[in-house]
Amino acid sequence: MEPNTLPKAYDFRDVEPYWYRFWEEQGFFHADVKSPKPSFSIVIPPPNVTGQLHMGHALNNTLQDILCRYKRLKGYEVLWVPGTDHAGIATQNVVERELAKEGKTRHDIGREAFIERVWQWKEKYGNIIINQLKRLGASCDWQRQRFTMDEGLSRAVRLVFVRLYREGLIYRGKRMINWCPRCNTALANIEVEGEEVEGAFYYIRYPLEDGSGHVVVATTRPETMLGDTAVAVHPEDDRYRHLVGKHCVLPLVGRRIPIIADSYVDMELGTGALKVTPAHDFNDFELGRKHGLDFVEVIGPDGRMTELAGSAYAGVDRYECRRKVVDDLKAQGLLEKIEDIQHRVGHCYRCKSVIEPLVSLQWFVKTKPLAERAIEAVRKGRTRIIPEKWTRDYFVWLENIEDWCISRQIWWGHRIPAWYCRDCDFITVSEEDPERCGGCGSADITQDPDVLDTWFSSALWPFSTMGWPEQTPELARFYPTSVLVTGFDILFFWVARMMMMGLHFMGDVPFYDVYVHALVRDEQGQKMSKSRGNVIDPLVMMERYGTDAFRFTLAAFAVQGRDIRLSEQRIEGYRHFVNKIWNASRLVLMNLDPDAEIPDISGKPDSLVHRWILSRLQGVIEDVERALENYQFNEHAQTLYQFVWHEYCDWYLEMIKADIYGEDKEKRAIAQAVSARVLEKVLIMLHPIMPFVTEEIWQKLPQTDGSIMKASFPDLNPSLKDPEAEARMGLLQEVISGIRNIRGEMNIQPGARVDVVCRCKDDADRSLLEDYGYLIHDLARVNRLDIRDMSGDKPDVAAGAVAGSVEVYVLLKDLLDFNAELQRLEKEIQKVEKELFLTTRKLHNEDFLKKAPQDVVEKEREKSVRLGEKIKKLKDHYDRIARFAGNSRSS
Asked: Does the record's keyword annotation contain Transferase (predicted)?
């Protein structure tokens, strides 16, 4: 029969869509709730329905897919629940922009028509990111795909709201919230992005009521002073102790406000005197409640000043008001100075407008009671957070948790199930739409116009996606889920909330493990952003280098607790690894009969080479399994990379070529069997990271049924562990590597064969080198190999190396033209010295050091060090060659 060979080149563009379609059609991603296998379950962090695949999605879903594919190979019934989030603000903004192109606003068409338009948009564009996840190879159970606003999840959201309200854990009240004047809605903390901006400290004089002087306060927001209701100082601040209890007069307004003492005040910040604006600052809000201060709202929801700011400022934009207030303070001699600063200011994550802290009537979840159970679950180990360093942050946040604002002033989302009666003050909260007031029975009721925070519905994700509140087979089989893979940025705002909701409504944690991965940054360690122009598009990388190479790169650099520094060159490098696997597989397959079953390896083969590779394979199986069980994705990738490239390909396959192409049928059969069996196991272990190329090769293996997805993860075979074979092969490799290194250092032509002397300390080493001398001849291009004991003199004109207790010498006489080599080295040294001179001169140039970007200067410094090291090596080599030349002449 013709061997079942692979094409010369691997074309991922044809392979990837073919096999993904095949896996889907065969139902390999679908979990069977009736399966007798042990369960493994995971829920996808739902990407926004408006989303496009970015590097964070790519990393997160690659790691999840690795776990799911690995667990299937380990014999688990795997449920990976996919889905998307309705992303209230983001999706509404997208559709509002579409309406704006028609010259309309959502208010022009009304709420009902607008919601219909959003659903239409979702049906047309909402699956873009799902298709991109499939492009990544994500093996989700697409038959169970969910959306946070589908019918089942909407019912779960309503039920949770109603139960929490009746339990007194949801309430409506006036509190300080983050407000976006552009989007006209409250925002969750995670929806506020702190950005460094140029600002100023304005030092303002507040005259004392008794005319005895003034207090100077420093503020970054002088427009808010119009709403000040106190000045606060630290009770132990000697500068102000005598003023506590007195009053000052609010500049520009004339309002009499008290001077109070509170240990919250930082004596070192500004002047140590703090203006207190309870209606427009989170910390001031708490001070206002604590000291019973008035709340004067001088900035409205539209970002303009209210009538309470005074007639001179009412209706003015907040930033225009700032300029006007500063001018008026200057005119009255009340502005002491302005100091330029850099400070962090909260911006809306969607429209990038500066957030305004406002006191607003909103719906809140009372989180303290829920947080206590979430803390206890992690403290008692019911849920692990990995890496462990995030556990401390999780505790700190939950121990200091504030009540959660869950209402949003938009139209797209789960509408709050609360109805207000116009005839009494009763609020009817119900799972079903009521017809009458639950208090007085009036039919004159209206539903709250607000919708729930997107995080509210996603907090139910682990159980709502499995059919809760129905007691479904999925819930019984797969809840709690096995692991959640997520970024650290949503540990508090999503993970902690899922913990609270899961424990409260399911009575158990939503997941046993939380694996927190880091950020993907550019190769300089900078965060990727469009403004920096350093974004690496995963779709472009997959199209350019193939999905397997891209996934392997992400996994190889996914070190726990460390951000990934990614570059296109690294992805290209792992594309070479895909080719290496392909070419190795071609070599193995072209020598196999496609109709003949690969024989099992029973017992240890006689050959050291086969015993060594089978022993190393056992170590790799052990290391890969341990790495994946401990979420050490980089260890999984690097272990296989090292084994496949450096041991299986570079050593083993090279060593057995003589057997494969030789006349000895028995040796050829053993070499074919071992090489194929090792390849088979390697493909299975690589499959979780590189699903496509491994499936393509798997299909060409003789007597392979179905798909690699139905294979079993390799079992460890302790009988094949052979430390002695590994040690002996290690010595053989050292000898060969030593000869190769000398060839490179001495600039010996690759095709030239060399004479080698090996001096052995003990008989076992000598016997080993004699038995496997043919490998040294083949792999190190040796002409004559002289294996001897330590008696006698060492060769004179020879370059040496040490391999264990063996001395290795490459004879150089008649091999090198020493004078020509010395001349070559002189020219090379002069060339590098000139380059070093130019680099050093640049680094001593003050203009260059001042004007050049820091990374450019750093690269020049690194280049200087590198050139210096290169010169030293060249000179050392020159001295060695000069000694050989002298020895050669004297002999």
From this structure: no
